[in-house]
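Changelog-adjacent note: as of this version, every example in the card shows the full chain rather than a window. The one below runs 121 residues end to end.
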Amino acid sequence: MMTTDSDDVVHSRSEVPSGDVPAGELLYVDQILRVTCAMMAGPTVVRLVGEVDATNSGALRRALTQALRLDRHLVVDAGRVVFIDVSGVRELASFVQETRVRVHNVPSQMRRLLHMLRLGL
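Full-length structure tokens:
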């Protein structure tokens, strides 16, 4: 079972969209972002739900690093990201470039920002 640093977990989740996100190990949560990890028969899937910005992009990277310890072939599902700023895109792109992680379901606004910054996933 994975644990999270108490500094990274804020239990107030009122602003995080919950919807039909499949259950999984909670890696990180704050008021605008939830990161879960679901171990599957294939690669482990890390789901991002909500918003990534300068307030939580570092925590996102730490959560992804933590998940990478479970499975070196992670898949990050970004389909439920409703907003991501430059700091979030840079952290995610940097992490992907340093690892074998793949990102699926990249929202169009994230794709546009990646293109403008000349970054790749």
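Structural remarks: The two ends are 28 Å apart (CA to CA).
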